[in-house]
Amino acid sequence: MRKSFFPLLLCSIFCFLSLPIFADLKDGKKAYSRKDYTEALKQFQKYNDGNPSSGEAWMYMGYIYESKKDYPKSIQAFKKAVSLNLPKKDLVNSLTKIILYHNYQRDYGEVISYSNRLLKIDPELSHIQKIRAAAEERHSSGGTYRKPTYHEEEAEQESVSSLEKKLKQDPNNKEILWQLALAYYNEKEFSKSETILSGLVKSEPDNIEYGYKYGALLVRISKYDEALSVLNRIEPKIPSEREKLLYFTHLTQAAAYHKKKNFEEASRYYKKAHANKHTVLPLIGLTKIKWQLKDCENAIKTAEKALEYGEKTREIRMYIGLCKVQLGQKEEGYDLLKEIAHAIEKENPDLKDLPDVYYDGFLKLARYYTNNGNYEKALKYFQAVQPDEEEEREYKFYLGKAYLYTGSVDKAISLLERVEDSAGAYYLLAKCYAEKSNIDQVMVNIKKAATIKSSYWGSAERDKAFKKFKSDDSFKNFLETRAGTRDPKRPDDNKDDSDSHDGD
Asked: I need a labelling partner for 102 at 20 to 30 A (CA). Which of 96, 161, 172, 494 fits?
């Protein structure tokens, strides 16, 4: 009897000491269920302090910060949770949250790391397999893939500072130089990476890994001609068994030609990349080219084929929406674009660091909202994107118009003055200067607009923006005589009933 007492006593003491700790967890869950997040966070932190090996409270904190749209803190909490003890179901859910977040942010090294860990737990998760495969395509360093690490199980990858110290001790070591170039690239220190890679390529012009990565870097920093010179030289040297390196080389060549608007060569290399490896990326490139060439029926066919891969469906559907607008199916096309934009805004309300693959869709919607008078929405979308050179003129015009109608007149003037030989831009400038009561500039810009499109004389006579100047004899005479070019008694034979005075 005495022998059984001490185990019983110890058990009782343990249970007694555990009560407050588990009470914190229980109280935290109750507060979480009634959405009292401040109290929940307080109780979960108390639980964490007393029970540092459990990840359960950290997981709930991740969900709370997610609800509060504080995504960086949410992912921090989920990462802490998966580094501790969690039931399998909770571990799978937390790892999935981390993977999806990094996939959206295009942190492909993190995507691969956490996907590897999750697939060890549950190898049958096909959607995670697809996400990892796509991430590997983007993250590859030219065929020699180095598995990224996740900190909970393996040593952290060597840092830039560590490699720099090694290089000081052994400045001619090519392996250190190569690893440092890759590290600089991953840290987006492209000029430093370029310096090293340029030297490595000069020292070993036949090294296909050096050549590929140097070419990829040059594309990244918009040196497309230099990139193609390097990539076109190494492409024939890549053996056929290096299928993965060939795929990435062809894909990078396609991207460079695409940026140069050489659609024929870009299409050829996208097709070569797809022949190397049947993935969705070359098909997305081909879809965009067909849309840019206004071959929308074939663009939609290619997009539908791309959708079969089950990846990147949002950006593929975006091009289907753009094509439908171009084909005249405007209601269906804009509804699809709005649906995609709404989903993105739900995840990223401020549209911060919007991936450039969505620029075309958001630009189209920005113009749509401008033309429909929703200037606040238009302005938000314009500010989220960076247009390419071909779209720069139209971008400035529509953004200037949005600024005018949201009260930012000086910003509107700054943009519209850079849109040359546009009747619509000159007319909007006249309206801007009317807001500033600068009658001289109003007349200068009305005249410029009407010289290109004479119907703007009639528009100016009817426009409420210029009503304040109607009592000014010089302005009245300016309009009646068409800036001194006709008899004021002559009837207006340039009247345009459409009065489309805000178009470019």
From this structure: 161
